[in-house]
Amino acid sequence: MLVLLVASGGHAWGQDTTRVRLEAGLAPDSTSGGFRLPLVRTRYLAHDDRWLTMLSSGFPVRLHYQIELWRARDGWFDALDRAIEWDVVVRHEPLLDQYTVTRLIARQRREYRYATPDALAAALGQAYRVTVANGITGRLYYVATLEITTLSDSDLDELERFLRGDLTPAAEGHGDVGSAVGRGAKRLVLKLAGLPSLSLSSQTERFESR
């Protein structure tokens, strides 16, 4: 079973809070054989005026994470062993003047609410310790990628239906068929409208697992 955990710990904020950053490292705990879990952190998203403006304007923001476990091979291309992905959707609720963070992991949904931008920044800046695999041997490393996009309401509904495994409304003609089959076209429209998007990546150091 693939599990995503929020790692505890303090937040060491740097001086440059104007650029969103994705950081990938190795968790300090390891097995007797040296296998390590990845630790992933997103910095400064809630300190970036672009994304706060989108949220306050009623556009939810989606963070799509993917962690890949790679095996290093001498004299040959490195091999992808396995991968895991999950989503975080951030919304601003104007009537309550608070932020909602929804984590969608392996078709499970967890929702959290935060009253201020600072509280949202602290929540989004938490580190994730991700169980991608256990007991894999060799010279290994992780590659983390993050895609940040602005969602319309129909995008958000589609994303939630997709992660629940429910595309029936669109398939039967009662939903947004264009959204179900033309997500790429919608993303193009959003980009042409000037809504921000961002792609980030980070790689851990290599480690030996026996």
Flag low-confidence runs: 8-15, 167-182
Rounded average pLDDT: 78
- Described by the principal axes of the CA atoms, the overall outline is elongated
Rg, nearest Å: 19 Å
The number of helical segments is: 6
Structural write-up:
This protein is α+β, with helices and mostly antiparallel strands and about 210 residues long. It is about 20% helix and about 45% strand. It is built from six helices and eleven strands. It has helices spanning about 50-55, 115-125, 155-165, 170, 175-180, 185-190; strands at about 5, 20-30, 35-45, 60-70, 80-95, 100-105, 110-115, 125-130, 140-150, 195-205, 205-210. Strands 4, 5, 6, 7, 9, 10 and 11 form a seven-stranded antiparallel beta sheet that branches. It has a four-stranded antiparallel beta sheet with strand order 1-8-3-2, with no helix packed on it. Strand 2 (about 20-30) and strand 3 (about 35-45) form a beta hairpin. The model is unreliable at about 10-15 and about 165-180 (pLDDT under 50).
Task: Produce the secondary structure layout.
Elements: E1 3-7, E2 21-30, E3 36-43, H1 49-56, E4 61-71, E5 79-93, E6 98-105, E7 108-114, H2 117-124, E8 127-131, E9 138-150, H3 153-163, H4 168-171, H5 177-181, H6 183-192, E10 197-203, E11 207-209
Antiparallel strand pairs: 1-8, 2-3, 3-8, 4-5, 4-9, 5-6, 6-7, 9-10, 9-11
Short descriptors:
210 residues; four-stranded antiparallel β-sheet; elongated; seven-stranded antiparallel β-sheet; 11 strands; alpha+beta; single chain
Give a short synopsis of this structure:
It is built from six helices and eleven strands.
